[in-house]
Design brief:
By secondary structure, the chain is an alpha/beta fold. The chain is built from 15 helices and 50 strands. The protein has four domains: about 250 residues, Alpha-Beta Horseshoe (Leucine-rich repeat, LRR (right-handed beta-alpha superhelix)); about 280 residues, Leucine-rich repeat, LRR (right-handed beta-alpha superhelix), CATH 3.80.10.10; about 100 residues, Phosphorylase Kinase, domain 1 (2-Layer Sandwich), CATH 3.30.200.20; about 200 residues, Transferase(Phosphotransferase) domain 1 (Transferase(Phosphotransferase), domain 1). It is about 20% helix and about 20% strand. α10 packs antiparallel against α15 and α14 packs antiparallel against α15. The protein is globular.
């Protein structure tokens, strides 16, 4: 609007310069008012206020920049067309801290997802001011306190998820006053009290998950008013009374789980109205009476579990109408009458019944870890693994040789006697034969040489005798040979050198006699163990033993071997050695000085051994009362005469003194300078020394793991100070370089919740130590494959390990400068803390160790067989894509609980080929997954999530590297896979 100044009273023309300044100021002020983009918007300021209470990853810190005009480009933030924040999704970003009241300033929010982080403190009641919210997800965090009472003000809320926190108090009545609420997940908290009586007001609710809390009291009958309800999970609480009859009104109900409570009375689902009911779980309660025949009208029922109740009577004949029924669990009740033949859920004991031999179509029988006794039925003709760890006696039936499709036999730890049947030679596809810890006698049948595919042969701890049949040389695929603690004679056969895949030889505790054949040094794959102790062996150690540079375990104790130990001087990979009670003499090789103070001594019983410490010293090369110094040993020799000494000295001076002196001085100077540099930066500290002392100078009893790069020891400096000490072995000439020290120092500065923190290190030319915090649950490999009995591993834990490992690798690939390629991703390098949170180890270290061994002719690839990407099968080159492939293999192991190279794989050589073959032909996930997960498939959302993760694994393991996703893509896909488990896709 323009106003003429001539109509203004008392107007006089001002100075024009002043007018210009004033107008400029007004124009600037007007601009600032009309265009607030000159500074961060109010939503952005609210977000910055929230972030001020959080610890966030680096990439998020960089993204949330206060200098921006709006937060719309920030990680996890979405805006509408007016640049107002409408969605906030920071799920799985590893954020910790409290959630502040500033959330109330984001009044236009429609979706909030803070799940899978480490938030703590109470849930702010200010969420009640975000009246436009449709989705609110705070699950899998550490929130405490009570659920806010004012959430009923969120009139548009459809999805509310607070599961897996530490929330206490009662379930607020106000939640069931939210008119549009469809999904409510409060499971896995510490909630108490009873279900509010007004639960029936939630007429739109589809999913109600209250399991795994401390809820009690009666289940309200008003729940029958929730006519849209499809999923009702009340299990693992303390509910009393009966299951209300009004449950029959829920015609849309698909899943009902009320197990592990204190419910009693009759099962009310007798009307047959629940036509859509798929899963009914009522186990671990006090239900009595008969099973209602009306359940036979629930024609969609696929799973019914009511074990450990007080049910009586017989199984209704109407169950014959349940054509979709897959699982029926009714054990531990008072049922009587005729049991249908389809039911086979028994806890067997006693003798194996002869009748099982009549099951001609039986392909797989697993009977181990029970209490069977008696003998194996002679007519048994089955097609899989047999029994072990029972009390079975008698002989091995000859008819076992008719089971020509057997791939594995395990009859260990029983009381079997007699001979090993020569008929076992008919098993052409047999891969593993374990008859150890029995009372078998006689010789080894030569017919076993027909088992061309045998890779593991274990008959240890029996009473077998005779010599080794020469025909066994045809077992060209044999990797593990265990014949220890028997009565074999005839010497160590030289044909063992022809079995080039041997990685472990256990011959100790026999009567072999003779000498050690030099040809044994040709076994370049002999990595894990060579045990020939207690065998009356004589002669000296062949120099060819020094070629076994990767050998980790050597036991030649309690023999009559003589000569020096110089053949062992190059075995730098040894972590366990025992040469005790022989007739060895001369100086100890430097590689054995580390074992000087082992207890019990692995060197004792050799009175003519002496100790000569190197000039550079060492951690364990100290004065030892059990061994005299080599100077004393050499002083007993005849002294040369003065004339002889003078003549030798004169000739040496004339011929070599100048040349040798110059060369030696040059080499000595170069080596000393290099070692001084390394020693100055090797990282040695009092903590490392204390840890080594705590392991009593690396005694064998402290070993908790072994791998390609070294051995891991556990050291305890107190109840809350436990460490893992890894001894590294450098197989080549590059170990201990200044470049290695520098790179380890760089790796030591990396910090991430899913990466193992390097505490300290100590580097020398031939070996070194790296110190980490000890992880209470060991490695993922231990949890999946090594523990007996295997621990229960629920899907949510497996998923947690998968997503955490993915986050760690993503950080290495994209948030480290320069980027780090792990090069050896495998379960052994994924450590699990007390909360089963994964921590990747050996990142950055694998590359250094592979470089250090690059001069070794036996090393041609990098990584571990089974985890190496196809493009890296014959090269040392590694890339991010190869890490993705290895991670995909780890995902498959998590899903299947099978090893990467599992003996159960027949035509397919590894887990990738096995899974791809089944999925390509059947697309049935239940044929692939660990059988222990099938119980969790009662929840279809979990099954959907497993399928999603399986598909991610198959993408990661595609043959062409260019088709694999990046680790960032993997994190996003795994996060998306979690949506079904939270119920969003219900």
């Amino acid at each position: 609007m323009l106003i003429s100044t001539r109509y203004l009273p008392f107007y006089s023309p001002p100075n024009m310069g002043v007018v210009t300044v004033v107008l400029s100021f007004l124009l600037l002020w007007n601009c600032m008012c009309l265009f607030p983009v000159c500074g961060l918007s109010s939503d952005g300021k609210a977000l910055m206020a929230l972030k001020s209470k959080w610890a966030v990853p680096t990439f998020m810190e960089e993204s949330w920049n206060a200098s921006h005009s709006t937060p719309c480009s920030w990680v996890g933030v979405s805006c509408d067309e007016t640049h107002v924040v409408v969605s906030l999704n920071v799920s799985g970003l590893g954020i910790s801290g409290h959630l502040g009241p500033e959330i109330a300033y984001l009044r236009h929010l429609t979706s909030v997802d803070f799940s899978y982080n480490s938030f703590s403190g109470p849930i702010p009641p200010e969420f009640g001011n975000c009246s436009l919210l449709v989705d609110l997800d705070l699950s899998v965090n550490g929130f405490v306190g009570e659920i806010p009472q004012n959430l009923n003000s969120l009139g548009k809320l459809e999805y509310l998820s607070f599961f897996n926190n530490s929330l206490t108090g009662a379930v607020p009545e106000s939640l069931f006053g939210i008119p549009n609420l469809e999904m409510l997940y409060l499971n896995s908290n510490k909630l108490s009290g009873s279900i509010p009586l007004n639960v029936g007001n939630a007429t739109q609710i589809i999913a109600l998950w209250l399991y795994d809390n401390a809820l009690s009291g009666d289940i309200p009958s008003s729940i029958g008013n929730c006519s849209e309800l499809e999923e009702l999970y009340l299990n693992h609480n303390q509910f009393l009374g009966v299951l209300p009859e009004s449950i029959n009104n829920l015609e849309n109900l698909i899943y009902l789980d009320a197990s592990n409570n204190n419910l009693e009375g009759k099962i009310p689902l007798g009307s047959g109205y629940c036509k859509k009911l798929d899963t009914l779980v009522l186990s671990m309660n006090g239900f009595g009476g008969e099973i209602p025949p009306g359940l036979g009208n629930c024609t969609s029922l696929s799973q019914f579990a009511a074990l450990n109740n007080r049910l009586s009577g017989s199984i209704p004949s109407s169950f014959g109408l349940l054509h979709k029924l897959l699982l029926l669990y009714l054990s531990e009740n008072h049922l009587s009458g005729k049991i249908p033949p389809e039911i086979g859920q028994c806890n067997l004991s006693g003798e194996l019944p002869v009748e099982i031999t009549e099951l001609k179509h039986l392909k797989n029988i697993s009977l181990f870890n029970n209490r069977f006794s008696g003998v194996i039925p002679q007519r048994l003709g089955i097609n899989s693994s047999l029994v072990h760890e029972n009390g079975i006696n008698g002989t091995i039936p000859l008819s076992l040789g008719n089971c020509t499709n057997l791939t594995s036999i395990n009859l260990s730890m029983n009381r079997l006697s007699g001979l090993i049947p020569q008929e076992l030679g008919n098993l052409n596809v047999l891969q593993a034969l374990n008859l150890s810890h029995n009372d078998l006698g006689g010789p080894l049948p030569s017919q076993l040489s027909n088992c061309k595919n045998l890779f593991k042969f274990d008959v240890g701890f029996n009473s077998l005798n005779g010599s080794f049949p020469s025909s066994l040389r045809s077992l060209e695929n044999l990797s593990v040979l265990i014949l220890r603690e028997n009565r074999f004679t005839g010497g160590i056969p030289s044909f063992l050198s022809e079995l080039q895949y041997l990685s472990e030889i256990q011959l100790g505790g026999n009567f072999l006699g003779g000498t050690i054949p030099s040809s044994i040094g040709m076994l370049q794959n002999l990595i894990y163990s060579l045990n020939i102790s207690h065998n009356r062996l004589t002669g000296s150690l062949p120099l060819e033993l020094g070629k076994l540079i990767m050998l980790e375990w050597l036991d030649i104790s309690h023999n009559n071997l003589s000569g020096t130990l110089s053949a062992l001087d190059g075995l730098h990979s040894l972590v366990v050695v025992d040469v005790s009670y022989n007739l060895f003499n001369g100086p100890l090789p430097e590689t054995l000085l580390l074992f000087l103070n082992s207890s019990p001594s692995s060197l004792q019983g050799n009175p003519d051994l002496c100790v000569k410490c190197p000039q550079t010293g060492g951690l364990t090369c100290i004065q030892n009362r059990n061994f005299r110094p080599c100077e004393h040993y050499s002083s007993n020799r005849r002294a040369l005469g003065k004339i002889e000494i003078a003549w030798i000295a004169f000739a040496s001076l004339l011929s070599f003194l100048v040349l040798v002196g110059v060369v030696c001085m040059f080499l000595w100077y170069k080596r000393t300078k290099q070692e001084d540099k390394i020693t100055a930066q090797e990282g040695s500290s009092s903590l490392l020394n204390k840890v080594i002392e705590a392991t009593e100078n690396l005694k064998e009893c402290y070993i908790v793991g072994k791998g390609a790069h070294g051995t891991v020891y556990k050291a305890s400096l107190g109840p809350h100070n436990q460490y893992a000490l890894k001894k590294l072995v450098f197989a080549g000439l590059k170990g201990g370089s200044m470049a290695m020290v520098t790179e380890i120092q760089t790796v030591g500065k990396i910090r991430h919740r899913n990466l193992v923190k390097l505490e300290d290190f100590w580097i020398r030319k031939e070996y070194g130590f790296i110190l980490y915090r000890y992880m209470e649950n060991g490695s993922l490999h231990d949890v999946l494959h090594e523990r007996n009995p295997p621990p229960i591993l629920k899907w949510d834990v497996r998923y947690k390990i998968a997503i955490g490992t993915a986050h760690g690798l993503t950080y290495l690939h994209y948030d480290c400068d320069p980027a780090i390629v792990h090069r050896d991703v495998k379960p052994e390098n994924i450590l699990l803390d007390s909360d089963m949170e994964p921590h990747i180890s050996d990142f950055g270290i694998a590359k250094l160790l592979d470089q250090s061994s690059s001069l070794s002719p036996s090393v041609s690839v990098v990584g571990t067989i089974g985890y190496i990407a196809p493009e890296n099968a014959f090269t040392t080159t590694k890339s991010k894509e190869s890490d993705v492939y290895s991670f995909g293999v780890v995902l498959l192991e998590l899903i299947t609980r099978k090893r990467a190279l599992d003996p159960s794989f027949m035509e397919e050589t590894d887990i990738v080929g096995w899974v791809q073959s089944i999925w390509r032909n059947l697309e049935e996930v239940d044929k692939i997954v660990d059988p222990s997960l099938l119980e969790e498939f009662i929840d279809p959302n979990i099954m959907d999530q497993v399928v999603c993760v399986l598909l991610v694994a198959l993408r990661c393991t595609q043959k062409e590297a260019s088709k694999r996703p990046t680790m960032r893509d993997v994190v996003n896909q795994l996060t998306d896979a979690n949506a079904p488990a939270r119920g969003k896709n219900s």
